[in-house]
Amino acid sequence: MRRRLAVAAATVLTLSGCTVAGNAAQDGKEQLVVGYQSKTINTVTAGTLLRAQGYLEKRLGDKYQVVWQDYDTGAPITAQMMAGKIDIGSMGDYPLLINGSRGQQSEQTRTKMIAVTGYNLHGALNTVVVAPGSPIKSLAQLRGKTVSTSAGSAAHGLLVQALRKAGVDPEKDLKVENQQPPIGASALQSGNVAALSQFVAWPGLLVKRGEAEVLYDGGELNVPTLHGTVVRQQYATDHPDVVKAFLQAQQDATDFLWKQPLKAAEIVAEQTGLPAEVVYLYNGANGIATFELPLKPELKQALQNDVPFLKSIGVLQGIDLDAFIDSSYLPATTGGNGAVLSGTDPICKTPVGAGAGELWLTGEETTQPAADATCLLKAVKNAEKSGKQVRAAYVPDTVTGTRWFADKSIWVQDGTHFLPFITRAAAEKYGKGTVITYAQAVAAA
């Protein structure tokens, strides 16, 4: 499997999913070509949201024409950067490492990682899902099965590490298909694969649609995962002011997301066709992703720890991480509180904290916080009694803290307390109380 995945990943890396813009400037303007992934919504501050709000164009002025190129994954962005046809791009951690490694093979192709977009310190941006009603209830039951993932992605890394932790040999005990996210999603629906391991926003989207249920929450692995911004070194050397303007614009987008997370989610949803409820799951207040430009020490260490896996599957020869990471272009001010829930729970009348849930009612321009999972259920019940429609309800997993849809969670009633879990296995492992459905939990709250 190792050789097949290495060849497949290398093949994907050389393919482009988008028409390449020419180098000719229009109306005497110099082109800046930006590669992004609209549906990989933890890169929105360097992609979809940034583009929609026009922050980069405002920062650059009339001298530059920004050409935006949209891709499904980071691999084709890297291929175009190596060819000198994309100047700045954004992608996940594993593709970033592959980008840096490939760039370091030649002085002309060197790249620099200059900022982070979104991250999760526990790895919850990646998830393994199965079809609804699947008999597979644990990773160990994937033995002898076929699983879809994108070779060389962080979702692939999650799959391999989680399988090994569960005592399953990912090379000998199952077949792994290297597929783009939408292809893998179709394969799961058709029954051609038993499970799908993918990155944001595919797991949330499939679960929201009722087309999948979670088998393994990436937060269980407790390994940081991140997305970031990368630039061609030669371009940065020739145009340092443009690179700094890009990161200032990325900070503008980050500030907007921090201050107006609901509005930001709706903008991204409109631009991508993704449901706003799914975007907000990841990018909203207390969302699965945290947006911040600086590379935290624990994130840098996570990148270093990812290198052996990428070497083991043959997609990375090696990388000088210190030479690849460059924080010198960051704006002077990048700090903030992030998009966090605050205020007082209107039902339980208590301040909200880290374990807060959130209720989004149809037709409402704001959401309401819930102090805990039990208070959230009471808020849902109250809304339903008032004839209001729940657009989305979010609640953190009892063990991992990963935020998820309340109506897609597995619930445990333990006396007067109600505890949500993303997977049935986690709910059953809890060992106390009674496993119940979401509807039963709402009724009993």
Overall average pLDDT: 92
Output the CATH class name of the largest domain: Alpha Beta
CATH H level of the largest domain: which superfamily? Periplasmic binding protein-like II
- Cα distance, first to last residue? 49 Å
Query: Number of helix segments?
Result: 17
Q: Please state how the strands of the largest beta sheet are arranged side by side.
A: 2-1-3-10-4-11
CATH architecture of the largest domain: 3-Layer(aba) Sandwich
Q: Helix amount, in percent?
A: 25-40%
**Helix/sheet category:** alpha+beta
User: Which blocks of ≥5 consecutive residues have pLDDT under 50?
Assistant: 1-24
Characterize the biggest β-sheet.
6 strands, mixed
Strand content: 15-25%
Count of separate structural domains: 3
Do you know the CATH topology of the largest domain? D-Maltodextrin-Binding Protein, domain 2
* Number of strand segments: 18
Signal peptide: 1-21
Family: Belongs to the bacterial solute-binding protein SsuA/TauA family.
Domain Solute-binding protein family 3/N-terminal: 43-265
Keywords: Signal
What distinguishing features does this structure have?
disordered N terminus, SsuA/THI5, Beta-Lactamase, signal, Solute-binding_3/MltF_N, globular, 5-stranded mixed beta sheet, Nitrate ABC transporter, periplasmic protein, 6-stranded mixed beta sheet, 445 residues
Describe this structure in words.
- The chain has 445 residues and is an alpha+beta fold.
- It has three domains: 2-120 and 225-324, Periplasmic binding protein-like II (D-Maltodextrin-Binding Protein, domain 2), CATH 3.40.190; 126-220, 3-Layer(aba) Sandwich (D-Maltodextrin-Binding Protein, domain 2), CATH 3.40.190; 357-444, 2-Layer Sandwich (Beta-Lactamase), CATH 3.30.450.
- It is 37% helix and 21% strand.
- It contains 17 helices and 18 strands.
- It has a six-stranded mixed beta sheet.
- Helix 10 (240-259) crosses helix 11.
- The N and C termini lie far apart (49 Å).
- Residues 1-24 have low confidence and may be disordered.
